[in-house]
Write a structure and sequence with these properties.
The chain is about 35% helix and about 25% strand. The chain is an alpha/beta fold and about 350 residues long.
């Protein structure tokens, strides 16, 4: 890659995973700041079909060929969870920048391997938490920091969907399946995002599917220096999602907080707490944006030296440490302390 390149970032898509071909790649293709140059699958037929459907000029029948392509600058890695770190490392060692789907690893110890690779290779590596690029979440944090709702004391969230397919990657324990890693990572990351600190201790209870063995219902409590976060998530529940942010004098309610539709305006409500009937609620509307497009553009800006990542790789490691502690707590029945050392964003 030539130094000082200012043209569109050339991306390669590592696999034909649904999240990539149905959501992320179409979003990326809306942007003039990047080019989706190539896509790979271990099945050449799938790569050919995806390339034809998406209008991608170059296809490969192996991940190795894509990573070796000298014209590709950045890799988007939407592989199953257990393949995130191994293939992200291979891409980084080939000099490619890597945007890896969440969760970035199976556990924090594995995620820490990426830190050493990033520092050795000098490439950008980030976790694909697209919500952190959405103007609504940026505004929510600004409102909290401005004191609009007083002192932040509690973040409450829920995220669920119903899927019970033994062939689905979310149903395979050995592949990092289950509700906590798949969707519980969102309220975990956003609670840390809002508090601007790491939880001192966490507590968790988990119900497992008796046949698939994955966690299907999770209740979590995170104790921060200044308050608490509580969330539930489920992989075999009615689809629903919401986040509420409580301060000492006000409240913020975030509509469809995680899967914000790219073709419809989004809202959040700021309640001044004056009564229980909503007369003190202000509605803040945001124009329709595609948060996956914004995510890719922000990552590209970091590559080009025009800005910073939405969150450094250290944040991804810290988020995995909290998820690890939640799993430990569900096993031990005790409060657990996340590792590694806390970092403040």
């Amino acid at each position: 890659m030539a130094a000082g390149n200012t043209g569109p970032v050339r991306w390669g898509i590592l696999s034909t995973a649904n999240i990539g071909v149905k959501v992320v790649v179409p979003a990326m293709q809306k942007s003039s700041l990047l080019t989706v140059a190539a896509i790979a699958s271990r099945d050449a037929g799938r790569a050919r079909a995806a390339a034809a459907a998406l209008g991608i000029s170059t296809l490969y029948g192996s991940y190795e060929e894509l990573i070796a392509d000298p014209s590709v600058e950045a890799i988007y890695n939407p592989l199953p969870n257990h393949l995130h770190v191994p293939w992200s490392i291979k891409a980084a060692e080939a000099g490619k920048h890597v945007l890896c789907e969440k969760p970035i690893a199976m556990h924090a110890a594995e995620a820490r391997e990426l830190l050493a690779v990033r520092d050795r290779t000098g490439v950008q590596i980030a976790e694909a938490f697209m919500v952190r690029c959405h103007p609504r979440w940026i505004t929510a944090r600004e409102l909290v920091r401005s004191g609009r709702i007083g002192e932040l004391k509690l973040v409450v969230g829920h995220f669920s969907y119903y899927r019970r397919d033994p062939d689905d990657i979310r149903s395979k324990v050995e592949w990092g399946g289950g509700a906590l890693l798949d969707i519980g990572c969102y309220p975990t990351a956003l609670s840390r995002f809002l508090f601007g600190s790491e939880p001192e201790a966490v507590s968790c209870t988990i119900e497992h599917d008796p046949d698939l063995k994955v966690d299907r219902l999770v209740s979590a409590l995170l104790r921060f220096p200044g308050g608490q976060a509580a969330f539930t998530c489920g992989g075999q529940l009615v689809p629903w999602q919401r986040m509420q942010i409580f301060g000492t004098i006000g409240r913020i309610d975030v509509e469809i907080p995680f899967n914000a539709p790219p073709d419809h305006r989004c809202r959040l409500w700021v309640d001044d707490g004056s009564d229980f009937f909503g007369r003190g609620i202000e509605t803040i509307e945001f124009p329709a944006v595609d948060q996956y497009q914004l995510q890719a553009e922000r990552f590209g800006d970091a590559i080009r030296g025009r800005g910073a990542l939405a969150a450094p790789l250290e944040d991804a490691v810290a988020n995995m440490a909290v998820l690890d502690a939640l799993f430990r707590s569900a096993h031990t029945g005790r409060w657990e302390t996340p590792e590694p050392p806390h970092t403040r964003r």
